[in-house]
Write a structure and sequence with these properties.
This protein is of the alpha/beta class. The protein is built from six helices and seven strands; from the N terminus they run αβαβααβαβββαβ.
Length: 193
C-alpha cells in the first residue's frame, strides 16, 4: 500500500466518468510535478449534465495534461429511436471543453497528444469553436471519423493519423484537404480509409 501511495505515476489517469472524490484523490496523490492523461467521454452523463464538474475538478492540473482522449458511445445505445439520437458526440464535448478553457482563460500547455474517437454513424457539423488558442505543444493528433475546425492549435503537430469510412456515401476528401494546411510542420501522415 505504501509503495502505491508513494508512486505518483499511478495516479495520473483522469476520466470524466470517475466519481468526484476519486478524481480529487488521484489529483492529490499524483503530486505537483506529474503530467496527466485525461479521458472525456460523451455518454448519458455528459448529455444530461455536461463536463463542467469534471473540468472544475481538474482545473488545478489542466495545464499538466499531456494527453487528451475524447470518446463517445456508439449510436446504437439510443434504442434505435432516431428521435432520441444525440448527434455530434465528440464534437459536442470538444466544443464544451474549448468554451470552458476560453471562459477560464486556461491553456493545455503540456498537451502533446490529442486523440478524438468519433463514431462512423454519427454526424458532425463543424462547429467546435476552434478559434480559441488552447495550446501550442501538440505533437501527435489522432482523429477517427471526425475533423475539428482547422486552427492555429494544430500548427505544432508533426504526426497525424486519420481514420474515416470511405464507404460512407457522405464521405469526401474535401474536409481533410482543408484541415491539412493547419499542420505545416507535419512529418508523418497516416490514413485509414
Amino acid at each position: 500500500r505504501t509503495i502505491a501511495l508513494e508512486t505518483c505515476g499511478l495516479w495520473t489517469i483522469l476520466h470524466s466518468c470517475d466519481a468526484p472524490h476519486q478524481l480529487e484523490t488521484f489529483i492529490a496523490r499524483a503530486g505537483s510535478k506529474e503530467e496527466f492523461l485525461a479521458f472525456i467521454h460523451y455518454g448519458h452523463r455528459a448529455i444530461a449534465s455536461g463536463i463542467s464538474q469534471f473540468m472544475s475538478l481538474c482545473r488545478p492540473v489542466i495545464s499538466r495534461w499531456k494527453a487528451l482522449t475524447l470518446t463517445q458511445d456508439d449510436q446504437d445505445w439510443y434504442n434505435g429511436d432516431l428521435a432520441q439520437r444525440h448527434y455530434g458526440g465528440v464534437e459536442n464535448i470538444l466544443k464544451e471543453l474549448l468554451v470552458y478553457l476560453s471562459r477560464k482563460n486556461l491553456r493545455l500547455l503540456a498537451l502533446k497528444e490529442l486523440d478524438v474517437r468519433g463514431h462512423r454513424e454519427d454526424r458532425y457539423y463543424g462547429e467546435d469553436g476552434g478559434g480559441y488558442e488552447w495550446g501550442s505543444s501538440l505533437r501527435t493528433c489522432r482523429l477517427s471519423y471526425f475533423l475539428p475546425d482547422p486552427s492555429s492549435n494544430f500548427f505544432s503537430v508533426t504526426t497525424f493519423f486519420f481514420t474515416q469510412d470511405a464507404g460512407d456515401p457522405e464521405f469526401t476528401l474535401g474536409p481533410l484537404l482543408e484541415f491539412l494546411p493547419s499542420m505545416p510542420n507535419l512529418a508523418t501522415l497516416g490514413l485509414e480509409l
